[in-house]
Amino acid sequence: LADDLLPVTLPAPDEFLAAAIVQSGGRLVPPGPETTALVWNLQHKPDELKAALSTMSALKWVQLPSAGVDDFVGAGIVTEDFIWTSAKGAYAAPVAEHALALTLAMLRQLHKRARAESWGCQAGKTLYGAHVVILGAGGIAQEFIRLTIPFGIKVTVVRRTADPVEEAHRTIRTSQLAEVLPEADVLLLATPLTAETTGIIGAAELAALPKDAVLINVARGGLVRTHDLVVALAQGQIAGAAFDVTDPEPLPTNHSLWKEPRALITPHTADTADMIRPLLAQRIADNICRFREGKQLIGIVDPAAGY
Amino acid sequence: LADDLLPVTLPAPDEFLAAAIVQSGGRLVPPGPETTALVWNLQHKPDELKAALSTMSALKWVQLPSAGVDDFVGAGIVTEDFIWTSAKGAYAAPVAEHALALTLAMLRQLHKRARAESWGCQAGKTLYGAHVVILGAGGIAQEFIRLTIPFGIKVTVVRRTADPVEEAHRTIRTSQLAEVLPEADVLLLATPLTAETTGIIGAAELAALPKDAVLINVARGGLVRTHDLVVALAQGQIAGAAFDVTDPEPLPTNHSLWKEPRALITPHTADTADMIRPLLAQRIADNICRFREGKQLIGIVDPAAGY
To answer: Three-state SS across B80-129?
Structure first.
């Protein structure tokens, strides 16, 4: 009977994830020749992963713990030798919630009010009926659209392929981004960091946005050219920017963005460890069941596309 | 034909509201014996209103411009002599949006992050599946429930009467408030300020909330005993409080709440003048049509209940 169980290696001790693995038909084995599936629960350590892979002659599948895998892809270890899965989509709910929190905070100027030490004047915009341009068409974009249905917003999704996102009013390709920026109330970044998307928001894109637009980034800091954002905010080219991710990350303590009145920065907490814990366990369990049943895994990474 | 038109007085010049009155069958007349309907577009000036009323021998109906009319009721001028209507319900959408913005901001600790000047640790709670206790069952409460449907929250409505709010999981009477406070993740105040509700949230209610609960007030500052809130926040009895209304209002510049790290204060901007302008015009137009057709007006104030 034990032969039916999938030999899974979990490098860092974690009783919660271990239980999810065992309950879904995995059998925990030490890293080595027995490892068929590797659940990499060490965040962002591509070098250690590379070393581990060399010891696993029977390895068929690697489950990565994060939704974005740009650091693993960048290290050149995500090859066609194995099936690679990320947690993409698994954390969409808390990240989309954070994106909505940041969006409403910017529109309602809560970042300015939090810093105020006296009563002020009326200010603020509404999300009802606003035009939100979302860069990315994955789980975060889809969940953000679902969360904002009651606000009756208009959504334009900008993505790599031409496949329309059903829930959006319009889906366009990345090459058409410049066309929609002048009509955006909110520009939400929710796309993987790849060779194509690195620095995709720079001086020209920020200048194309209306002066009262806000930029929200819950994806990766490297999507935005930080220096260009600093300049655009200082000059009032956009009304504000809220971001959960920065480049460099963590943002250094002496960085000028900490003093920028139009900026609101959260320290990569859109999906906290507490929030993702049950979501990652569920994804691992689902994928172990699928692997044992010979079904397609969820969150497969395309090494060529980089996500 | 002009006899069919309703003689309406609009004391402050306002072309936008004047157009709404004329388009819905009103005829603008100066304040005096001709005035049948008075659209009081001077905010919060009960003394002036009282003086105006004494000159209007034909007056039948007074439309007040705000949703809360506690100041007019408190001045003793809202009597059975005329029909009184407020804007209650008309501004529910922007106010509920503001309540959601404040709720998400507190759960995601955006008030603390806005004040931070360096990267920090992970923190934050999610709204998904949270238990929200709403004091009040009017337009704001109903719209807040509608906006948060995608989050799958559990809502307990606390109201004066026993009539259940259909969209809530549970509706209880104000006398049962103490029973549900220990289970609240969020306590949202969205009820009129009346003799019964003044100071309804004090030391005992704040102490009954869980330590990680947050208080949101978008109704009237006087619902909360300010001194008790100051103490509860300073002692960490609750995780935080965000409020658009204060007592006293405006909150004085030297008030200790401006320095309270667990507090977030917005200056009565849940419904800005820009946001309410079209909503008030629509309400006035609807009510003029109804008055001319002999139908029941929207937003009728019960002088005895005080709202």
So the answer is: CCCEEECCCCCCHHHHHHHHHHHHHHHHCCHHHHHHCCCCCCCCCCCCCC
Q: Is B235 helix (H, G, I), strand (E, B) or coil?
A: coil
DSSP state of A296: P
Rounded Cα–Cα distance for residues A61 and A81 (Å): 9
Q: Does the ipTM surpass 0.85? A: yes
Around Cβ B233, how many Cβ atoms within 10 Å?
A: 21
Minimum distance, in Å, between the CA of residue A94 and any CA atom of chain B: 7
Single out the residue of B251, B230, B274 nearest to residue A108, CA to CA: B274
CA distance B188 to B237: 17
Taking CB atoms and an 8 Å limit, are A104 and B100 in contact across chains?
Answer: yes
Q: What's the rounded Cα separation, in Å, for the pair A220 and A214? A: 17
Crossing angle (nearest 10°) for helices A15-23 and A273-292: 30
Q: Output DSSP code: residue B297.
A: P
pTM for the complete prediction? 0.94
Report pLDDT digits (tens) over A101-137: 999 999 999 999 999 999 999 899 999 999 999 999 9
Q: How far apart are CA B207 and CA B237, in angstroms?
A: 6
- Pure H helices in chain B: 15-23, 46-53, 70-74, 92-107, 110-115, 139-147, 177-180, 203-208, 226-234, 273-293
Phi, psi of A217 (to 5 degrees): -125, 110
Question: From the list B113, B151, B258, which residue is nearest A117 (CB)?
Answer: B258
Bridge partners, B6 (sequence order)? B26
- Check B269 against A123: CB less than 8 A apart: yes
> pLDDT, tens digit, for every residue of B255-294?
999 999 999 999 999 999 999 999 999 999 999 999 999 9
Chain A residue with Cα closest to B146: A150
Q: Does A43 touch chain B (CB under 8 A)?
A: no
Token pair, residue A41, equals 């629960």
Q: Which of B43, B102, B106, B118 to mutate to probe the A interface, most A CBs <10 Å?
A: B118
CB contact A149 to B (< 8 Å): yes
Tokens encoding A245: 């991710």
Inter-chain touch B113–A267, beta carbons under 8 Å: yes
